[in-house]
Amino acid sequence: MIDTKQKELSKFQEKYGTAKDFYKDNLSIRNSLEQEWRDASQLTLPYIFPVENQSESASMPTPFNSVGASGVNTLASKLLLALLPPTGIFFRLLPDKKVLEDVPEEGLKQLDSELAIVENDVIEYINQTAMRVPVYEAIKLLIVTGNTMLYKIPNGSFKAFSPYQYVVQRDYVGHMISACIKEQMSVDVLPEKVVDELELRDSVDNISTESTVKQVDVYTMIVREAHNKYLVWQEVNEMVVPGSEKSYDADGLPYLILRWTTVNNEAYGRGLVEQYLGDLRSLEGLTQTIVEGAGISAMHLFGLRPGSTLKVEDLNNAQNGEFVLGDLEREVSTLQVNKGADLQVPMQLMQQLEARLSRAFMNLGSGGIRDSERTTATEVRATAAELEATLGGVFSVLASEFQSPLIKLILKELNPKVLKVAIPSVTTGISAISREKDFTNLNTMLQAISQLGPDVIGQYLNVPAYLGQIATSLGMSPSDIVKSPEQMQQEQEQAQLQQQQMMQMEQQGQMNLEAQKQEGRG
Predict the structure, then answer these.
(1) How many CA atoms, within 13 angstroms, populate the side-chain half-sphere of residue 416?
(2) DSSP letters of 69-119?
(3) Measured between alpha carbons, how far is residue 195 from residues 175, 209, 236, 349, 434 in Å?
(4) Do residues 214 and 184 make contact, with C-beta atoms less than 8 angstroms apart?
(5) Among 212, 336, 251, 271, which Cα is nearest to 45's?
(6) Which of 107, 125, 132, 234 is the most core-located residue (most Cβ within 10 A)?
(7) Which residues contact 315 (CB under 8 A, 6 or more apart)?
(8) Is the Cβ–Cβ distance between 365 and 379 less than 8 Å?
(9) Is the dihedral of CA 375, 377, 380, 383 positive or negative?
(10) pLDDT (tens digit, 9 = 90+) per residue, 50-76?
Protein backbone atom coordinates (compact mmCIF):
# COMPACT_ATOMS: atom_id res chain seq x y z
CA MET A 1 0.00 0.00 0.00
CA ILE A 2 1.32 3.42 -0.96
CA ASP A 3 2.14 5.52 2.10
CA THR A 4 1.54 9.23 2.64
CA LYS A 5 4.99 10.17 1.35
CA GLN A 6 4.29 8.38 -1.91
CA LYS A 7 0.98 10.24 -2.27
CA GLU A 8 2.85 13.53 -1.94
CA LEU A 9 5.35 12.43 -4.57
CA SER A 10 2.54 11.42 -6.91
CA LYS A 11 1.58 15.09 -7.18
CA PHE A 12 4.38 15.42 -9.71
CA GLN A 13 2.68 12.81 -11.87
CA GLU A 14 -0.72 14.43 -11.48
CA LYS A 15 0.68 17.72 -12.81
CA TYR A 16 3.12 16.52 -15.47
CA GLY A 17 2.15 12.89 -16.08
CA THR A 18 4.29 9.82 -15.56
CA ALA A 19 7.84 9.66 -16.91
CA LYS A 20 7.10 6.41 -18.73
CA ASP A 21 4.17 7.95 -20.64
CA PHE A 22 6.24 11.03 -21.50
CA TYR A 23 9.02 8.79 -22.82
CA LYS A 24 6.64 6.79 -25.01
CA ASP A 25 4.83 9.88 -26.30
CA ASN A 26 8.09 11.45 -27.52
CA LEU A 27 9.64 8.34 -29.06
CA SER A 28 8.22 8.93 -32.53
CA ILE A 29 10.40 11.99 -33.25
CA ARG A 30 13.54 10.26 -32.04
CA ASN A 31 12.73 7.05 -33.92
CA SER A 32 12.45 9.00 -37.16
CA LEU A 33 16.09 10.10 -36.75
CA GLU A 34 17.59 6.88 -35.40
CA GLN A 35 18.15 5.26 -38.79
CA GLU A 36 20.37 8.16 -39.91
CA TRP A 37 22.28 7.99 -36.62
CA ARG A 38 22.71 4.23 -36.97
CA ASP A 39 23.93 4.53 -40.57
CA ALA A 40 26.43 7.18 -39.48
CA SER A 41 27.62 4.93 -36.67
CA GLN A 42 28.00 1.82 -38.84
CA LEU A 43 30.21 3.71 -41.30
CA THR A 44 32.47 5.13 -38.55
CA LEU A 45 32.28 3.64 -35.03
CA PRO A 46 29.57 0.94 -34.92
CA TYR A 47 29.57 0.68 -31.13
CA ILE A 48 28.59 4.35 -30.74
CA PHE A 49 24.95 3.82 -31.71
CA PRO A 50 24.00 0.12 -31.81
CA VAL A 51 20.51 -1.29 -31.99
CA GLU A 52 18.58 -0.49 -28.80
CA ASN A 53 18.68 -3.25 -26.16
CA GLN A 54 21.31 -5.15 -28.17
CA SER A 55 23.02 -7.81 -26.09
CA GLU A 56 26.69 -7.49 -25.22
CA SER A 57 27.53 -10.71 -27.08
CA ALA A 58 26.01 -9.49 -30.37
CA SER A 59 28.51 -8.81 -33.14
CA MET A 60 28.93 -5.32 -34.58
CA PRO A 61 29.13 -4.56 -38.31
CA THR A 62 32.65 -4.04 -39.60
CA PRO A 63 33.22 -1.38 -42.29
CA PHE A 64 35.51 -2.15 -45.23
CA ASN A 65 37.52 1.05 -44.60
CA SER A 66 38.76 2.90 -41.52
CA VAL A 67 38.61 6.46 -42.86
CA GLY A 68 35.42 7.28 -40.94
CA ALA A 69 36.67 5.79 -37.66
CA SER A 70 40.03 7.53 -37.96
CA GLY A 71 38.36 10.84 -38.79
CA VAL A 72 35.98 10.69 -35.82
CA ASN A 73 38.74 9.75 -33.38
CA THR A 74 41.08 12.44 -34.71
CA LEU A 75 38.48 15.20 -34.61
CA ALA A 76 37.25 14.10 -31.16
CA SER A 77 40.80 14.25 -29.80
CA LYS A 78 41.34 17.75 -31.19
CA LEU A 79 38.03 18.99 -29.84
CA LEU A 80 38.83 17.51 -26.42
CA LEU A 81 42.14 19.40 -26.40
CA ALA A 82 40.31 22.59 -27.39
CA LEU A 83 37.48 22.26 -24.86
CA LEU A 84 39.47 20.85 -21.91
CA PRO A 85 43.15 21.54 -22.61
CA PRO A 86 45.50 19.50 -20.38
CA THR A 87 47.80 22.48 -19.85
CA GLY A 88 46.76 26.02 -19.07
CA ILE A 89 43.39 27.46 -18.07
CA PHE A 90 40.57 27.49 -20.62
CA PHE A 91 38.48 30.12 -18.81
CA ARG A 92 38.84 33.28 -16.76
CA LEU A 93 36.87 34.50 -13.77
CA LEU A 94 36.14 38.16 -14.50
CA PRO A 95 34.92 40.35 -11.61
CA ASP A 96 31.35 41.58 -11.95
CA LYS A 97 30.90 45.22 -12.98
CA LYS A 98 29.15 45.99 -9.68
CA VAL A 99 32.15 44.58 -7.81
CA LEU A 100 34.52 46.75 -9.85
CA GLU A 101 32.60 49.85 -8.81
CA ASP A 102 32.60 49.06 -5.08
CA VAL A 103 36.09 47.55 -4.56
CA PRO A 104 39.14 49.88 -4.42
CA GLU A 105 42.13 49.37 -6.70
CA GLU A 106 44.22 47.57 -4.05
CA GLY A 107 41.30 45.25 -3.33
CA LEU A 108 40.94 44.43 -7.04
CA LYS A 109 44.53 43.18 -7.19
CA GLN A 110 43.89 40.89 -4.26
CA LEU A 111 40.60 39.76 -5.83
CA ASP A 112 42.38 38.92 -9.08
CA SER A 113 44.93 36.80 -7.24
CA GLU A 114 42.19 34.98 -5.32
CA LEU A 115 40.22 34.34 -8.51
CA ALA A 116 43.39 32.95 -10.12
CA ILE A 117 43.67 30.45 -7.23
CA VAL A 118 40.05 29.38 -7.80
CA GLU A 119 40.75 28.91 -11.52
CA ASN A 120 43.64 26.58 -10.70
CA ASP A 121 41.41 24.68 -8.25
CA VAL A 122 38.86 24.05 -11.02
CA ILE A 123 41.56 22.73 -13.38
CA GLU A 124 42.92 20.50 -10.61
CA TYR A 125 39.40 19.21 -9.96
CA ILE A 126 38.99 18.29 -13.64
CA ASN A 127 42.32 16.44 -13.61
CA GLN A 128 41.61 14.54 -10.39
CA THR A 129 38.12 13.35 -11.43
CA ALA A 130 39.32 12.11 -14.86
CA MET A 131 36.56 14.18 -16.45
CA ARG A 132 38.07 14.01 -19.92
CA VAL A 133 37.25 10.29 -20.30
CA PRO A 134 33.42 10.60 -20.44
CA VAL A 135 33.69 13.94 -22.25
CA TYR A 136 35.74 12.24 -24.98
CA GLU A 137 33.00 9.63 -25.45
CA ALA A 138 30.37 12.39 -25.48
CA ILE A 139 32.26 14.27 -28.20
CA LYS A 140 32.33 11.13 -30.38
CA LEU A 141 28.58 10.78 -29.89
CA LEU A 142 28.18 14.41 -30.95
CA ILE A 143 30.25 13.93 -34.11
CA VAL A 144 28.44 10.74 -35.14
CA THR A 145 24.85 11.36 -34.03
CA GLY A 146 24.86 15.07 -33.23
CA ASN A 147 23.38 14.49 -29.75
CA THR A 148 24.42 13.38 -26.28
CA MET A 149 23.59 14.02 -22.65
CA LEU A 150 26.04 14.45 -19.78
CA TYR A 151 25.14 14.01 -16.11
CA LYS A 152 27.44 15.67 -13.58
CA ILE A 153 27.95 13.19 -10.75
CA PRO A 154 28.05 15.04 -7.40
CA ASN A 155 31.70 15.54 -6.38
CA GLY A 156 32.76 13.40 -9.30
CA SER A 157 33.03 13.07 -13.05
CA PHE A 158 30.39 12.87 -15.80
CA LYS A 159 28.20 10.08 -17.10
CA ALA A 160 27.53 10.18 -20.85
CA PHE A 161 24.18 9.09 -22.31
CA SER A 162 23.61 8.04 -25.90
CA PRO A 163 20.61 9.63 -27.67
CA TYR A 164 18.77 6.29 -27.73
CA GLN A 165 18.60 6.54 -23.91
CA TYR A 166 16.62 9.78 -23.65
CA VAL A 167 13.98 11.98 -25.26
CA VAL A 168 13.84 15.76 -25.07
CA GLN A 169 11.56 18.71 -25.83
CA ARG A 170 12.85 22.23 -26.53
CA ASP A 171 11.26 25.65 -26.86
CA TYR A 172 11.45 27.88 -29.93
CA VAL A 173 14.92 29.22 -28.95
CA GLY A 174 16.39 25.77 -28.25
CA HIS A 175 16.22 25.72 -24.44
CA MET A 176 15.15 22.45 -22.84
CA ILE A 177 11.54 22.29 -21.69
CA SER A 178 11.52 18.70 -20.50
CA ALA A 179 13.47 15.49 -20.94
CA CYS A 180 13.34 11.88 -19.80
CA ILE A 181 16.11 9.29 -19.45
CA LYS A 182 15.49 5.54 -19.54
CA GLU A 183 18.03 3.28 -17.88
CA GLN A 184 18.16 -0.33 -16.80
CA MET A 185 19.41 -0.90 -13.27
CA SER A 186 19.77 -3.86 -10.97
CA VAL A 187 17.02 -4.25 -8.41
CA ASP A 188 19.71 -4.59 -5.74
CA VAL A 189 20.79 -0.94 -6.11
CA LEU A 190 17.26 0.43 -5.63
CA PRO A 191 15.99 1.68 -2.24
CA GLU A 192 14.34 -0.96 -0.06
CA LYS A 193 10.98 0.82 -0.17
CA VAL A 194 10.97 0.64 -3.94
CA VAL A 195 11.93 -3.05 -3.97
CA ASP A 196 9.19 -3.85 -1.47
CA GLU A 197 6.66 -2.00 -3.59
CA LEU A 198 7.76 -3.93 -6.68
CA GLU A 199 7.40 -7.28 -4.90
CA LEU A 200 3.87 -6.41 -3.75
CA ARG A 201 2.71 -5.72 -7.31
CA ASP A 202 1.29 -8.51 -9.44
CA SER A 203 2.61 -7.11 -12.73
CA VAL A 204 6.29 -6.41 -13.16
CA ASP A 205 6.41 -6.41 -16.94
CA ASN A 206 9.42 -4.15 -17.17
CA ILE A 207 11.63 -6.41 -15.06
CA SER A 208 14.03 -8.37 -17.21
CA THR A 209 14.84 -11.92 -15.99
CA GLU A 210 17.13 -12.88 -18.86
CA SER A 211 20.17 -12.75 -16.58
CA THR A 212 20.68 -13.93 -13.02
CA VAL A 213 20.43 -10.32 -11.83
CA LYS A 214 17.00 -8.74 -12.24
CA GLN A 215 17.02 -5.51 -14.22
CA VAL A 216 14.34 -2.86 -13.94
CA ASP A 217 13.61 0.22 -16.05
CA VAL A 218 14.34 3.48 -14.21
CA TYR A 219 13.04 6.74 -15.68
CA THR A 220 14.55 10.11 -14.79
CA MET A 221 12.19 13.02 -15.52
CA ILE A 222 13.42 16.61 -15.97
CA VAL A 223 10.79 19.35 -16.20
CA ARG A 224 11.16 23.11 -16.40
CA GLU A 225 8.82 24.52 -13.77
CA ALA A 226 9.58 28.20 -14.31
CA HIS A 227 11.90 30.38 -16.36
CA ASN A 228 14.93 29.49 -14.24
CA LYS A 229 13.80 26.42 -12.29
CA TYR A 230 13.89 22.71 -13.09
CA LEU A 231 12.28 19.80 -11.26
CA VAL A 232 13.88 16.32 -11.38
CA TRP A 233 12.55 13.01 -10.09
CA GLN A 234 12.90 9.27 -10.83
CA GLU A 235 10.28 6.60 -11.35
CA VAL A 236 10.20 2.81 -11.22
CA ASN A 237 7.04 1.02 -12.37
CA GLU A 238 5.30 4.40 -12.54
CA MET A 239 6.15 4.98 -8.87
CA VAL A 240 8.21 8.00 -7.81
CA VAL A 241 11.40 6.90 -6.04
CA PRO A 242 11.48 8.45 -2.54
CA GLY A 243 14.28 10.98 -2.14
CA SER A 244 14.85 11.37 -5.88
CA GLU A 245 12.83 14.57 -6.20
CA LYS A 246 15.07 17.65 -6.46
CA SER A 247 14.80 21.22 -7.64
CA TYR A 248 17.57 23.11 -9.46
CA ASP A 249 18.07 26.51 -10.93
CA ALA A 250 19.20 26.69 -14.57
CA ASP A 251 22.89 27.13 -13.65
CA GLY A 252 22.83 24.23 -11.19
CA LEU A 253 21.07 21.62 -13.35
CA PRO A 254 23.52 18.68 -13.57
CA TYR A 255 22.04 17.40 -16.85
CA LEU A 256 23.62 18.89 -19.98
CA ILE A 257 21.89 17.99 -23.25
CA LEU A 258 24.35 18.83 -26.02
CA ARG A 259 24.02 19.16 -29.79
CA TRP A 260 26.60 19.34 -32.57
CA THR A 261 24.55 21.79 -34.59
CA THR A 262 21.29 23.48 -33.70
CA VAL A 263 18.36 23.24 -36.09
CA ASN A 264 15.44 25.66 -35.83
CA ASN A 265 12.30 24.15 -34.26
CA GLU A 266 13.99 20.77 -33.78
CA ALA A 267 14.71 19.15 -30.43
CA TYR A 268 17.67 17.12 -31.68
CA GLY A 269 20.86 18.20 -33.41
CA ARG A 270 22.59 16.88 -36.50
CA GLY A 271 26.06 15.36 -36.43
CA LEU A 272 29.03 16.00 -38.66
CA VAL A 273 29.01 12.43 -40.01
CA GLU A 274 25.42 12.85 -41.18
CA GLN A 275 26.53 15.77 -43.36
CA TYR A 276 29.04 13.51 -45.14
CA LEU A 277 27.04 10.29 -45.32
CA GLY A 278 27.09 10.42 -49.13
CA ASP A 279 30.87 10.40 -49.30
CA LEU A 280 31.13 7.73 -46.60
CA ARG A 281 28.65 5.45 -48.34
CA SER A 282 30.37 5.92 -51.69
CA LEU A 283 33.77 5.22 -50.14
CA GLU A 284 32.42 2.12 -48.40
CA GLY A 285 30.98 0.74 -51.64
CA LEU A 286 34.12 1.47 -53.65
CA THR A 287 36.35 -0.01 -50.95
CA GLN A 288 34.28 -3.19 -50.94
CA THR A 289 34.59 -3.38 -54.71
CA ILE A 290 38.35 -2.90 -54.58
CA VAL A 291 38.79 -5.44 -51.77
CA GLU A 292 36.69 -8.08 -53.45
CA GLY A 293 38.30 -7.41 -56.83
CA ALA A 294 41.76 -7.64 -55.30
CA GLY A 295 40.81 -10.92 -53.65
CA ILE A 296 39.65 -12.36 -56.98
CA SER A 297 42.79 -11.13 -58.73
CA ALA A 298 44.95 -12.71 -56.04
CA MET A 299 43.41 -16.17 -56.50
CA HIS A 300 45.62 -18.83 -58.17
CA LEU A 301 43.53 -21.26 -60.20
CA PHE A 302 44.96 -23.69 -62.77
CA GLY A 303 43.06 -25.52 -65.47
CA LEU A 304 43.85 -28.86 -67.15
CA ARG A 305 42.77 -29.49 -70.74
CA PRO A 306 40.14 -32.24 -71.03
CA GLY A 307 41.63 -35.48 -72.37
CA SER A 308 45.11 -34.52 -71.20
CA THR A 309 47.58 -37.26 -70.42
CA LEU A 310 48.54 -35.35 -67.28
CA LYS A 311 46.91 -36.30 -64.01
CA VAL A 312 45.65 -33.76 -61.48
CA GLU A 313 47.02 -35.89 -58.64
CA ASP A 314 50.51 -35.77 -60.13
CA LEU A 315 50.39 -31.98 -60.43
CA ASN A 316 49.05 -31.51 -56.89
CA ASN A 317 51.62 -33.85 -55.35
CA ALA A 318 54.60 -32.59 -57.36
CA GLN A 319 57.37 -31.02 -55.32
CA ASN A 320 59.31 -27.98 -56.32
CA GLY A 321 61.84 -28.87 -59.04
CA GLU A 322 60.37 -32.29 -59.86
CA PHE A 323 59.60 -33.63 -63.38
CA VAL A 324 56.07 -34.31 -64.56
CA LEU A 325 55.51 -36.26 -67.77
CA GLY A 326 53.63 -34.16 -70.30
CA ASP A 327 53.55 -30.85 -72.16
CA LEU A 328 52.70 -28.39 -69.39
CA GLU A 329 52.60 -25.31 -71.61
CA ARG A 330 49.86 -26.77 -73.77
CA GLU A 331 48.00 -28.90 -71.25
CA VAL A 332 47.89 -26.50 -68.21
CA SER A 333 46.35 -22.99 -68.22
CA THR A 334 46.21 -20.26 -65.53
CA LEU A 335 43.14 -18.16 -64.71
CA GLN A 336 43.90 -14.47 -65.30
CA VAL A 337 41.32 -11.77 -64.41
CA ASN A 338 43.19 -8.85 -66.05
CA LYS A 339 41.00 -6.26 -64.33
CA GLY A 340 43.81 -4.10 -62.95
CA ALA A 341 43.17 -1.30 -65.43
CA ASP A 342 39.43 -1.28 -64.65
CA LEU A 343 40.11 -0.99 -60.91
CA GLN A 344 42.11 2.21 -61.44
CA VAL A 345 38.90 4.22 -61.91
CA PRO A 346 37.41 3.36 -58.48
CA MET A 347 40.87 3.77 -56.93
CA GLN A 348 41.14 7.35 -58.17
CA LEU A 349 37.63 8.16 -56.94
CA MET A 350 38.48 6.61 -53.57
CA GLN A 351 41.48 8.91 -53.24
CA GLN A 352 39.30 11.95 -53.95
CA LEU A 353 36.73 10.84 -51.38
CA GLU A 354 39.43 10.21 -48.77
CA ALA A 355 40.88 13.68 -49.36
CA ARG A 356 37.46 15.33 -48.93
CA LEU A 357 36.71 13.38 -45.77
CA SER A 358 40.16 14.11 -44.36
CA ARG A 359 39.54 17.84 -44.73
CA ALA A 360 36.09 17.50 -43.19
CA PHE A 361 37.41 15.65 -40.14
CA MET A 362 40.60 17.74 -39.81
CA ASN A 363 42.75 14.68 -40.43
CA LEU A 364 45.83 16.61 -41.55
CA GLY A 365 48.01 13.52 -41.69
CA SER A 366 46.20 11.96 -44.64
CA GLY A 367 44.59 14.48 -46.92
CA GLY A 368 44.76 17.97 -45.47
CA ILE A 369 48.32 18.87 -46.51
CA ARG A 370 49.92 18.73 -49.94
CA ASP A 371 52.02 15.60 -50.23
CA SER A 372 55.42 16.69 -51.49
CA GLU A 373 59.03 16.94 -50.42
CA ARG A 374 58.85 20.76 -50.28
CA THR A 375 55.75 21.13 -48.11
CA THR A 376 56.44 24.11 -45.88
CA ALA A 377 55.42 24.81 -42.30
CA THR A 378 53.50 27.82 -43.58
CA GLU A 379 51.25 25.51 -45.61
CA VAL A 380 50.64 23.36 -42.54
CA ARG A 381 49.67 26.36 -40.41
CA ALA A 382 47.46 27.79 -43.16
CA THR A 383 45.65 24.46 -43.60
CA ALA A 384 45.19 24.07 -39.84
CA ALA A 385 43.83 27.61 -39.51
CA GLU A 386 41.39 27.02 -42.37
CA LEU A 387 40.09 23.79 -40.88
CA GLU A 388 39.76 25.25 -37.39
CA ALA A 389 37.86 28.22 -38.76
CA THR A 390 35.26 25.84 -40.23
CA LEU A 391 34.43 24.64 -36.70
CA GLY A 392 33.78 28.12 -35.37
CA GLY A 393 30.03 27.53 -35.14
CA VAL A 394 30.55 24.24 -33.31
CA PHE A 395 32.85 25.90 -30.78
CA SER A 396 30.22 28.57 -30.14
CA VAL A 397 27.53 25.98 -29.43
CA LEU A 398 29.75 23.85 -27.19
CA ALA A 399 31.05 26.91 -25.32
CA SER A 400 27.52 28.01 -24.42
CA GLU A 401 26.00 24.55 -23.82
CA PHE A 402 28.98 22.70 -22.31
CA GLN A 403 31.95 24.77 -21.13
CA SER A 404 30.09 27.56 -19.32
CA PRO A 405 27.64 25.20 -17.53
CA LEU A 406 30.55 22.89 -16.66
CA ILE A 407 32.48 25.70 -14.98
CA LYS A 408 29.42 26.84 -13.03
CA LEU A 409 28.63 23.29 -11.86
CA ILE A 410 32.18 22.78 -10.59
CA LEU A 411 32.24 26.19 -8.89
CA LYS A 412 28.95 25.42 -7.14
CA GLU A 413 30.67 22.41 -5.58
CA LEU A 414 34.04 23.98 -4.81
CA ASN A 415 33.26 27.62 -4.00
CA PRO A 416 29.67 28.83 -4.63
CA LYS A 417 30.45 32.34 -3.35
CA VAL A 418 32.70 33.00 -6.35
CA LEU A 419 29.71 33.12 -8.71
CA LYS A 420 28.34 36.09 -6.76
CA VAL A 421 31.39 38.26 -7.49
CA ALA A 422 32.76 36.85 -10.77
CA ILE A 423 31.52 35.70 -14.17
CA PRO A 424 33.22 32.76 -15.97
CA SER A 425 34.50 33.66 -19.43
CA VAL A 426 35.58 30.88 -21.79
CA THR A 427 38.94 31.54 -23.47
CA THR A 428 39.07 28.56 -25.86
CA GLY A 429 37.15 27.67 -28.99
CA ILE A 430 36.21 30.48 -31.31
CA SER A 431 37.80 33.11 -29.08
CA ALA A 432 41.07 31.17 -29.12
CA ILE A 433 40.98 31.06 -32.92
CA SER A 434 40.45 34.83 -32.99
CA ARG A 435 43.40 35.39 -30.61
CA GLU A 436 45.63 33.12 -32.70
CA LYS A 437 44.76 35.23 -35.72
CA ASP A 438 45.69 38.39 -33.78
CA PHE A 439 49.00 36.83 -32.74
CA THR A 440 49.81 35.99 -36.38
CA ASN A 441 48.92 39.51 -37.52
CA LEU A 442 51.09 41.11 -34.84
CA ASN A 443 54.11 39.03 -35.80
CA THR A 444 53.54 39.79 -39.48
CA MET A 445 53.43 43.51 -38.72
CA LEU A 446 56.66 43.33 -36.69
CA GLN A 447 58.42 41.48 -39.52
CA ALA A 448 57.28 44.12 -42.00
CA ILE A 449 58.55 46.97 -39.79
CA SER A 450 61.86 45.22 -39.08
CA GLN A 451 62.70 45.36 -42.78
CA LEU A 452 62.85 49.15 -42.48
CA GLY A 453 65.59 48.97 -39.88
CA PRO A 454 65.89 49.02 -36.08
CA ASP A 455 65.77 52.81 -35.97
CA VAL A 456 62.25 52.80 -37.43
CA ILE A 457 61.12 50.26 -34.82
CA GLY A 458 62.44 52.39 -31.98
CA GLN A 459 60.93 55.55 -33.47
CA TYR A 460 57.44 54.37 -34.49
CA LEU A 461 56.63 51.15 -32.59
CA ASN A 462 54.92 51.43 -29.21
CA VAL A 463 56.71 48.51 -27.57
CA PRO A 464 54.61 48.32 -24.34
CA ALA A 465 51.39 48.33 -26.36
CA TYR A 466 52.78 45.69 -28.74
CA LEU A 467 53.81 43.42 -25.86
CA GLY A 468 50.42 43.91 -24.23
CA GLN A 469 48.64 42.83 -27.43
CA ILE A 470 50.92 39.77 -27.70
CA ALA A 471 50.07 38.76 -24.11
CA THR A 472 46.35 39.22 -24.77
CA SER A 473 46.48 37.11 -27.95
CA LEU A 474 48.15 34.32 -25.95
CA GLY A 475 45.45 34.42 -23.29
CA MET A 476 47.65 36.04 -20.62
CA SER A 477 47.09 39.08 -18.48
CA PRO A 478 49.19 41.99 -19.85
CA SER A 479 49.28 43.71 -16.45
CA ASP A 480 51.03 40.70 -14.92
CA ILE A 481 53.71 40.50 -17.64
CA VAL A 482 54.19 43.86 -19.33
CA LYS A 483 55.43 46.79 -17.27
CA SER A 484 53.17 49.83 -17.22
CA PRO A 485 54.54 53.32 -18.05
CA GLU A 486 54.27 54.23 -14.37
CA GLN A 487 56.37 51.21 -13.38
CA MET A 488 58.99 52.02 -15.99
CA GLN A 489 59.14 55.65 -14.82
CA GLN A 490 59.52 54.56 -11.20
CA GLU A 491 62.29 52.14 -12.15
CA GLN A 492 64.06 54.88 -14.13
CA GLU A 493 63.80 57.28 -11.19
CA GLN A 494 65.12 54.60 -8.83
CA ALA A 495 67.98 53.85 -11.21
CA GLN A 496 68.85 57.55 -11.48
CA LEU A 497 68.66 57.89 -7.70
CA GLN A 498 70.93 54.88 -7.21
CA GLN A 499 73.34 56.29 -9.80
CA GLN A 500 73.40 59.64 -8.01
CA GLN A 501 73.98 57.95 -4.70
CA MET A 502 76.86 55.95 -6.16
CA MET A 503 78.38 59.12 -7.66
CA GLN A 504 78.03 60.89 -4.32
CA MET A 505 79.68 57.97 -2.59
CA GLU A 506 82.54 58.01 -5.09
CA GLN A 507 82.97 61.78 -4.67
CA GLN A 508 82.89 61.42 -0.89
CA GLY A 509 85.45 58.64 -1.10
CA GLN A 510 87.77 60.76 -3.22
CA MET A 511 87.41 63.70 -0.83
CA ASN A 512 88.25 61.46 2.10
CA LEU A 513 91.25 60.08 0.25
CA GLU A 514 92.57 63.56 -0.55
CA ALA A 515 92.03 64.64 3.05
CA GLN A 516 94.02 61.65 4.26
CA LYS A 517 96.86 62.49 1.84
CA GLN A 518 96.99 66.10 3.05
CA GLU A 519 97.09 64.95 6.67
CA GLY A 520 99.94 62.61 5.79
CA ARG A 521 101.92 65.43 4.21
CA GLY A 522 101.35 67.66 7.18
Answers:
(1) 4
(2) HHHHHHHHHHHHHHHS-SSS-SEEEEEPHHHHHHS-HHHHHHHHHHHHHHH
(3) 36, 15, 9, 60, 56
(4) no
(5) 271
(6) 234
(7) 302, 304, 324, 332
(8) no
(9) negative
(10) 876 666 677 788 889 999 999 999 888
